[in-house]
Specification:
By secondary structure, the chain is α+β, with helices and mostly antiparallel strands. The chain folds into four domains: 108 residues, no CATH class; 116 residues, no CATH class; 165 residues, no CATH class; 36 residues, no CATH class. 48% of the residues lie in helices and 12% in strands. Strands 1-2-4-5-3 form a five-stranded antiparallel sheet, sandwiched between helices. A five-stranded antiparallel sheet has the order 6-7-9-10-8, with helices on both faces. Strands 11-12 form a two-stranded antiparallel sheet. Helix 11 crosses helix 13.
Length: 478
């Protein structure tokens, strides 16, 4: 390996990267060349320790060069085994390249000081009584947060890498003997195929790559930013997938009932936890079916509505220029528009704009005779009910299902509502999450499926028994 070959290749690879520094040290007969990214290395250690020691070693006044390389943990790079993408991956992870002309050797010195964020409370999952730390964008930090809680060799960690220029690192965590074998084999095979996938844009692309069913509207995975909840899910037979650069963990396999479980449930009395979970299920039904049922009754089955309520609704809709179906669509659209605006605006102004905008727009629509109070109230109840759900993907799913039920109900009345219900049930029953049925009743039976949803008192919970198979007592008391 000659200087020209190595430096020419590196210069060609980083010719458009003006943030890469190149420095030459030593006398002409013992020259060394350093390449590094100054914002990714510890410049204090570089200037005050490594560079002076290296200069003295090259001049023969300091310690031997081999001893300095050993002390700094320098690794000799074999040119025949290195690609340009490997050089880029090393230097942009905080490594310093050191080429020694006399030896014709290229070393990689670990002086990394990569900018990172300290663990803090997750913004998406605010904690009331639980732990306040949360996942960050550093993969190693996230794994350390899990290891701190689960200090056992039964917890397996496997690393995978995505394709090409990104070389994104992905980690799979699972408990031996707890994850269903079919789920483990599926996720391992799909993660091995990540070598053909470019992972950019966060967890959404990773989810598409590993779920295997990209077109389903049902969430096949769960996400969390809380290490305590992630550790609990690991103990209950799930696996975690972390991706470098994202502050969340993907949890799978999941069933429909598990998407109604909150990370805070385990910190409350089991009576409160059960009541909250039942409330979320009722809210999901209200969010999906209430607009459709109301429209079907109002358009086709007025005789099923109590006379006084029907008279109130009829009086409130006097003079409206649009049908009940269009009015409901418009109400839901305006409320979803306000919700989306509040989510995209900065925190300081988002909630204020949503509340004030909702009051002004709602009052103006009622006064202008475009919307009726009864329709606005029902649409608001549906939107708020959907917001009680824990999983953000499930919230989006309820909006799609609500529109589906609403259209069929407007076309066919109550019959259309029933058709929509049966279609969604059949669709969900035939859906699998990494080989596990979406309706856990199909696999575990009535009793165990109920125990997976209802949290038992901790004295009846065998969660601490490591090594049980998934679906046994380790699943009880979620």
């Amino acid at each position: 390996m000659t200087e020209g070959n190595v430096l020419d290749r590196l210069s060609l690879a980083f010719r458009d990267c003006e943030d890469i520094c190149t420095e030459k040290l030593g006398l002409s007969e013992s020259k060394a060349v350093m390449l590094y990214q100054p914002n990714l290395v510890d410049t204090t250690r570089l200037r005050e320790y490594f560079t002076p020691e290296l200069t003295r070693s090259l001049s023969g006044e300091g310690r031997e060069l081999d001893k300095l390389m050993n002390e700094t943990g320098a690794a000799l790079l074999q040119e025949a085994q290195m690609k340009l993408a490997d050089y880029a991956s090393l230097i942009f992870s905080g490594q310093l390249f050191l080429y020694l002309e006399r030896r014709g050797e290229l070393y990689s010195v670990n002086l990394a000081s990569v900018p990172r964020r300290d663990p803090e409370e997750s913004a998406l999952e605010p904690s009331i009584r639980g732990a306040r730390d949360g996942f960050v964008e550093e993969l190693d930090t996230n794994i350390a947060l899990i290891r701190k809680r689960l200090a056992t060799t039964d917890l397996s960690v496997k690393y995978y890498y995505s394709h090409g220029t990104t070389r994104t690192r992905v980690a799979l965590l699972y408990f031996k003997g707890r994850v269903p074998e079919v789920s483990l084999s599926i996720i391992q095979q799909r993660l091995e195929n990540l070598a053909q996938t470019v992972l950019v844009g966060g967890n959404a692309r990773l989810e598409d790559a590993v779920t295997g069913n990209r077109y389903t509207v049902l969430p096949l995975t769960n996400f969390t930013g809380k290490p305590d909840y992630a550790a609990e899910r690991l103990m209950r037979g799930k696996f975690l997938v972390f991706m470098e650069g994202t502050p969340t963990a993907m949890i799978a396999p999941v069933s429909l009932t598990e998407l109604f479980i909150s990370s805070e449930d385990s910190y409350f009395n089991y009576h409160v936890a059960i009541a909250n979970r039942m409330l979320r299920i009722i809210a999901a039904f209200i969010a999906v079916f209430s607009p459709g049922v109301f429209i079907s009754l109002l358009m086709y089955n007025q005789d099923q509505i109590p006379f006084q309520l029907l008279a109130t609704i009829g009086i409130s809709r006097l003079g409206l220029p649009i049908s009940a179906f269009v009015e409901m669509l418009l109400s839901l659209f305006l409320l979803d528009l306000l919700r989306e605006a509040g989510a995209r605006l900065p925190r300081a102004t988002g909630s204020t704009i949503t509340v004030v905008g909702g009051i002004i727009i709602g009052d103006a629509a009622l006064r202008a005779g475009i919307l009726s109070p009864s329709m606005t109230f029902l649409a608001a109840v549906a939107i708020v009910s959907g917001s009680t759900l824990v999983n953000l993907n499930l919230q989006s799913t309820t909006r799609i299902m609500r529109l589906f039920v609403l259209i069929l109900s407007a076309l066919c009345g109550i019959y259309g509502t029933i058709i929509a219900l049966f279609y969604m049930l059949v669709y969900a029953i035939n859906t699998q999450s990494f080989g596990v049925p979406y309706f856990s009743y199909e696999k575990y039976g009535r009793k165990e499926s109920l125990l997976k949803f209802i949290r038992l008192p901790f004295r009846k919970n065998s969660l601490d028994i490591v090594g049980e198979t998934s679906g046994s007592k380790g699943e009880e008391g979620s």
